Amino acid sequence: QVQLVESGGGLVQAGGSLRVSCEASGRAFSSYAMGWFRQAPGNDRELVAAISWSGRSTYYEDSVKGRFTISRDNAKNTVYPQMYSLKADDAGIYYCAAREYTGEGTVLKGYEIWGQGTQVTVSS
After folding, report:
1. I want to staple 17 with a disulfide (CB 3.0 to 4.6 A). Which of 6, 32, 46, 84 is the partner?
2. Is the Cβ–Cβ distance between 89 and 76 less than 8 Å?
3. Which has the closest alpha carbon to 9: 122, 114, 123, 118?
4. Calpha distance 46→97 (Å, rounded)
5. Separation of alpha carbons 44 and 38, rounded Å
């Protein structure tokens, strides 16, 4: 099992960027596919980015393509969701999530382990 801690959220002006990290404890980090979820106020939680266990495969929801990236450094037990050109619609609570999966692709559902979330607020 892994424990996930998000950091790097906060207040940013529209058009700005946030460099977020999701740090995991545990020795089995490399066996987990990872996801990055957004829960906007009043909306359901949705997957906006995902990365395979190896980092070789990534997924981005259409609304964030070209603006968000996700990468990982398994030696550091850390995933790095990077969010650029932030818009008001990007605001919400962002969650890091993990699912044990060693296939080559990303995981789009069935996440098992969740971080506490980090608030992203976009001002104008």
Report:
1. 84
2. no
3. 118
4. 11
5. 8
Residue 49 burial (10 A CB sphere; 0-12, 13-18, 19+)? buried
Mean pLDDT by 10 residues, the chain (124 residues): 91 97 86 96 96 96 98 95 97 96 94 96 94
Structure tokens at 98: 């993990």
Q: How far is CA 45 from CA 6, 40, 66, 90, 103, in A?
A: 16, 7, 21, 12, 24
DSSP code at position 74: G
Residue in 10, 25, 19 with CA at minimum distance from that of residue 115 = 25
- Enumerate residues 6+ apart whose C-beta is below 8 A from 74: 29, 30, 55
Residues making up the chain, counted from first to last: 124
Amino acid at site 15 = G
